[in-house]
Amino acid sequence: MKALAFLLILVTGFWPGKTVAADGPLIVYFEERPPYQLLRADGNVEGLTADPAAQAFKAADIDFVWQESSMSRQMHVMRENQGQACVVGWFKNSDRLAFAKFTKPIYRDRPFVALVRNGFGAIAGRSLDEALATPGLRVLVRGKYTYGGTIDSALKRVQPLTIASPNRHLQLVEQLVKNRADLMFAAEEEAEELLSRSGGAASGLQIVRFADVVPGEYRHIVCTFKVADAIIARLNKAIDGK
Predict the structure, then answer these.
(1) Could you tell me which of 172, 176, 163, 166 has the C-alpha nearest to residue 206?
(2) Given strand 218-223, what is the order of strands in its sheet?
(3) Surface-to-core class of residue 235, CB atoms within 10 Å of its CB (0-12 exposed, 13-18 middle, 19+ buried)
(4) Cα–Cα distance between 121 and 106 in angstroms, integer?
(5) pLDDT tens, residue by residue, 170-227
(6) How many Å from the N-terminal Cα to the C-terminal Cα in the chain?
(7) Measuring CA to CA, which of 58, 171, 179, 223 is 20 to 30 A from 165?
């Protein structure tokens, strides 16, 4: 039995019954983004996507470590297939499926809303296309970021004046407050969190809901192609609770 276990280690790099990356724990990249991912004082990460991701790794008995990284760095690691690494909370689309492996969903957003300067509050209750066609509207988006199929398609279809920024979402709110744009998108739970964290500075902003926005997008654990299919399978089994 010991000989068989030793042979298994030589061939796969795994102890029987435990799945780990061959060269050490999986690196799980995150970017602080309340309410999805928040760094705690003890070095762990919590939040709406961090919690179910950590639970899945632990239930699947997969060694992992959190590592903070910008979204642009995460995208680079995934696209370049740099080592056995994962990220948490991404939407799935055809472009990303070409360079990364996706687990089953770990969280579903509430419907997308918009944070809007009060001067454009009249767009509330309109369809998404009608709102984006509002004369003079400046839409603030995060560069190289996807908002899911519904929002991305509407932006391409209507083509409003769009301002792309590399900043994180709390900084995007600051740009709205400073009148550098009029509208930005977020899932409803994130929009509420952003307003709460912005305090009095965001008093000139409001949450606007659209007449036709579908239920929120699913978020996944996403890994490089160097992560073994066995790891993805164990994560999926853990996500299913089996």
Answers:
(1) 176
(2) 64-68, 26-30, 85-90, 218-223, 101-108
(3) buried
(4) 33
(5) 999 999 999 999 999 999 999 999 999 988 788 899 999 999 988 899 999 999 999 9
(6) 28
(7) 223
The answer to whether the beta carbons of residues 67 and 15 sit under 8 Å apart is no
DSSP structural state of residue 141? E
Dihedral sign for Cα 31, 118, 122, 166, please: negative
E-state strands within the chain:
26-30, 38-39, 45-46, 64-68, 85-90, 101-108, 112-117, 138-142, 161-165, 183-187, 205-208, 218-223
Distance of alpha carbon 111 from alpha carbon 129, whole angstroms:
16
- What is the rounded CA–CA span in Å between residue 55 and residue 91? 19
List 65's β-bridge partners, or say none. 27
- The span from the CA of 56 to the CA of 203, in Å, is 39
Sequential DSSP letters for 177-212? HTTS-SEEEEEHHHHHHHHHHHGGGGTTEEEE--SS
Q: Maximum distance among all alpha carbons in the chain? A: 74
Contact (CB, 8 A) for 102 and 131: no
How many helices (H) and strands (E) would you count in the chain?
9, 12
Q: 160: Cβ–Cβ under 8 A, 6 or more apart, which residues?
A: 132, 133, 134, 137, 138, 139
Mean pLDDT of 88-111: 96
Distance CA 92, CA 86 (A): 14
Q: Is 89 left (phi over 0), alpha (psi -120 to 50) or beta?
A: left
Instruction: Count CB atoms within 10 A of the CB of residue 46.
Output: 14
Around 69, how many Cα atoms within 13 Å sit in the side-chain half-sphere?
19
Q: Which two tokens stand for residue 109?
A: 């957003």
